[in-house]
Amino acid sequence: MVADEIKISDLKIVALAGGVGGAKLALGFYHYLQNQYPGQPANLFERLAIVGNTGDDMDDYLGLYICPDLDTLMYSLSGLANPATGWGIEGDSNQALQMLARYGHDNWFWLGDRDLATHLRRTQRLSQGARLTEITAELAAGVGITCQLLPMCDQPVRTLVHTVEAGILPFQEYFVRRRATDTVTGLTFQGVEQATISPEVRQAVSEADLILICPSNPYLSIEPILAVPGMRQLLGTTNRPSKRPIVVVSPIVGGQALKGPAAALMRTLGGEVQASALGVARYYAGFASHFVLDRQDAEQEAAIEALGFKVLLTDTIMKSLEDKMGLAKAILDWEQL
Amino acid sequence: MVADEIKISDLKIVALAGGVGGAKLALGFYHYLQNQYPGQPANLFERLAIVGNTGDDMDDYLGLYICPDLDTLMYSLSGLANPATGWGIEGDSNQALQMLARYGHDNWFWLGDRDLATHLRRTQRLSQGARLTEITAELAAGVGITCQLLPMCDQPVRTLVHTVEAGILPFQEYFVRRRATDTVTGLTFQGVEQATISPEVRQAVSEADLILICPSNPYLSIEPILAVPGMRQLLGTTNRPSKRPIVVVSPIVGGQALKGPAAALMRTLGGEVQASALGVARYYAGFASHFVLDRQDAEQEAAIEALGFKVLLTDTIMKSLEDKMGLAKAILDWEQL
C-alpha cells in the first residue's frame, strides 16, 4: 500500500531492470497490473514503464545492433521468451546461424531466426535516424506489449569489463563468449558522460509513484542505468506529498545470485567478504528506501533495517508466473510502502 | 569441339550469366565438366569461371547487401537451390520474415532464414573492406563450389528500369515488387562508368578458350556485364591462334522467354515486332560468333547464319539435370566450335 493511499489501479510504476533476473519481476508486475484493469490486454502505457539497461548492447555484431537486455524484457513481456533459458524466443530455429557457420562465421553469440528479425529491424530503423527509444516502442508494440519499455538512454553506453585474465572486455565478450569466468576488477561505462535522460524516461520517472529496482545485477545491470547523468537525482526526487519509495528486490538469496555473476562481483567489486542480501542493501543504502528480503535471509533483516531501509520479508524466488505475480502483489500490498 | 582441338579436360571456359535461366546452363556445364576430371568434387577453379550480373543487387535492403543473381548461381551450383523457383534455398524457412511482418516491415522481397546468412555475411565482409569478388569466392567455397564464381565487377552498378507506368525504378522494385508488369522504355546502368574489370575477371577471360553467353535476358542480365568499361573488348580479344568462339544460347525459344520478361523487352527495347531467337541473334550480331538455336526455331537458322553466326540446332529446354548436362555436352562436342 503506497503511503498516501493511491489505489493500485491508479499507481504509476517505473521499474529498472537488466536481463533475465529482472525480467522475471517485470513480468510479474506486468501481469498483476493487467489484472487490475478491464480489457485484455489492458493498456498499461501510463501505469508501468520498464527501463532497461543498454550497457550490454553490441553496436555491430554481423552488422547488427543488438540490445540483449531490452530483447529479454521484450520477449518476456510478450510471452515469446524461451522459459528454459530466460532469453531468446521459445522454439526459435537457427537456420541462419547454421548457414553462417558454413561461411566461416564464429557463432559465439546465439542468433535465432525470429530473433534476427528484431536485430535487423532495429538496425534498419537506427540507420534511418530513429532513436532507440522510438524503435524499442515500435518493436514492443509489434509483439503486443502494452506497457512502456524504455532503454535507459538513446546514446550508446558500453559496459567494459576489466578482468585479471583477459584485460578489458566488451560486456558480451566477457559474459557470453568467455562465460563470465574471468575475475572482474572494475567496470567502465564507456560513453555514459555523453548520455542524456530521454524525454520518455524523464516523464515516466517524474510521474511515478513507485520506483522498483528489479532483482538484477547491481553492478552490471542497474549501475549503468544509474550512471546516466542526472538519473540518480531524477529517481530520488518526487513531487508527491510524501517521499516516493524506491524499492529494491534483492538479486542475492541465500548467498547465491538468482542468475549470472552477481555473487562473484559482490566480492571483487563490492568488497564484500561474501555475497549477501545485506551486501546488496549496503550497495543501495542512502539511495533506495525499501528492501524486499527473502525469508531465507531473515537473519539479515535487522542489519538491513539498521542501514535505514524498511524491509519486507517474503518469498522472492520466482519460478512460475504465479510466483512472479505473487511477488508483485506482495510488494504492492506492503503496508509500509 | 573447339577449333584448335583442345581436349575438353584442358578447356578453359568463361560463362556470362544472370539469374535463374542462365544458372541452368551454368549448372549443366559445372556438372558435365566435373565428370571430365578425376575426384569428386573435381577442382574446376582453372577450368570454369562464371561471371554473374550484379546490376540487380540491392545495397541496403534492411541494411543488407543482396546479390540476387550471384546468390541464384551459388545456390544452383552448390545444389542448395529450390528447384521449384530456381532461386532461394530448398526447404528454407522464413521465421525472420514472419517476425519482421509483426514489426511492420513490408516483406516484398523474400528472405529465407538460411538465405539471410548469405546476406549478413556478405554485408559484414563488405563493411570490413573486402571486395565483392573476394567475398563471393569465400561464400562459394563455404558451400563447396569448386569453379570460380565472379561478380562482373567490384563496384556497385545499379540497373534502373525506365517504365511508362511508374517512372524510373530500381531493378528489384520493377522485377519483384511490381512483378515486371510495367512497360519498359529504357535501362540505365547507374555507376557503370566507374566500374572496372577485376583482376580475377581479366585473368579468367584472358585465358579462356571459349566464352559462353548463358540463356539469360540480354538486356537485364548480359548487357550490364558487357557495359563494364573494356569488357566487350576483353571478351572479343584472344591470344589463341584461332579466333575464340563466343557462343550464345538463345533465351528465347518458340517466341517465349525461358524465364522472366525477356520477350516483352525484345519488343520495347529491341525494336523487334515479336520476340524470337533471331531477335536475340540480331542483338549479339558482330560480337558473338556462335549461336545455339532450339530445334523448335529451326526455320530461323538461315536468317541467323546470314547474320554471320555458326548455328547449332539442338534441344535447349532444360528441365532435368540431364537436360542441362546434355546441352553442355552438345555445345562442347560441336564440330564448328
Plain-language structure description:
The structure is a homodimer of 337-residue chains. Chain A is α/β, with parallel strands linked by helices and 337 residues long. In chain A, the strands form four sheets. Chain A has a seven-stranded parallel beta sheet, with helices on both faces. The first copy, chain A, has a three-stranded antiparallel beta sheet with strand order 7-6-8. A two-stranded antiparallel sheet of chain A has the order 3-4. In chain A, helix 4 runs antiparallel to helix 5. The longest helix of chain A has 15 residues. The interface between A and B is medium-sized, with 32 and 32 residues.
Descriptive keywords:
homodimer, 337 residues, alpha/beta, 7-stranded parallel beta sheet, 13 helices, 18% strand
